[in-house]
Amino acid sequence: MANSCGLTESATKGEIIIASDFPTSGSIRVGGRPGEAGVAYAVQLASPLKGFKLVHVPYDDSINGSQDEQLGARNFTEMANDPKVLGVVGPYNSNVARKAIPIANRAELAVVSPSNTGTCLTQDFAFCDPKPSALRDPSKPNGYFRIVAPDSLQGFAMADFAYDVLKITRVAVWSDSVQFGKHVADAFATRFEARGGVIVARQDFPFIVQKKDFTPFFKRAKDAGAEGIYAGAVTGTGGCTAKAQAKGIIDVYYLGSDGIGDSQCIKDAADQANDKMYFTVAAPVAAQDPANKSLIDAFMKAFP
User: What residues make up the domain containing 76?
Assistant: First the structure.
């Protein structure tokens, strides 16, 4: 819970709780803790507000180093039952959000996620199960918001980058057959063809990480004149072990979503990791804007 730093006598109307829900224990803490700390700092800066003391109450939705959607649902149920909780920052993961949105919606609890990219949380596609409408009571106001782009836009953005910046017109596309991977791959292919590009090969691999042999796909891509490969996958489903298997077969641009944008990807790609690899991100990096420097410095001092 955040302390009452900056509290003055003007905070006489009572408390308002701003909760947060992030995975903050075990190995996954590296992803969730920065967001939790950011909420704590923002609450410290804003309190008191119009006569109310603002208090941060953090919730952890991780178990044994992994986010847990059932724990997330229990967290949101507890928040919804507390009349002092006005809003929530989180959750971190989209699958937790699928459980949390109906609970928050029924309680008319405001929820703002800094990281949910799951397309079907707000957009309706044929593959969505559940549909966005199934997560909400139509008689209640919408109280769920996110400040990052949905996954569908990652595929579109990379297609534009490939066509406009890299100046390539022939790309081979593969996915891991998981909803996220297949969706971004489909989005890339649709957009790239709409721009005038050609998808020279397409394959959806079974979701068996250790058994995948990508070499026949890369050979087809090379024979078809591919100038780039788009991987609809994440590191854990072979997104970059595939790149390692391209060795000696094809050396072209290797493109993907933020699912392949981590240090493990570089390790998995081995000696095939190079400057021809690009990935998209669903949110801007605050540190890239010089205007944010003083705020970031102050935050880092408060939460080293």
Answer: 15-149+286-302
